[in-house]
Specification:
alpha+beta; two-stranded antiparallel sheet; 3 helices; globular
Length: about 60
């Protein structure tokens, strides 16, 4: 993941062993500490930090 600007929802879900919907909702509700979700009118956009995701995934195993 090194050098990446952002991790996709699908990739984060795979790394965590969760569904993409779990990651989306967790970010939207500010329950997951590795990214942000921003609502742009009716659509959501996401930014997932590779470094923070890696740290979170390491602690959760």
């Amino acid at each position: 993941m090194e050098g990446k600007q952002s991790v996709s929802i699908a990739e984060a879900a795979r790394i965590l062993g969760k569904s993409p919907q779990f990651v989306r909702i967790g970010l939207q509700r500010q329950l997951l500490p590795f990214g942000v979700a921003v609502q742009m009118s009716s659509k959501w956009t996401y930014h997932i930090s590779p470094k923070l995701l890696e740290e979170y995934a390491g602690k959760s195993q």
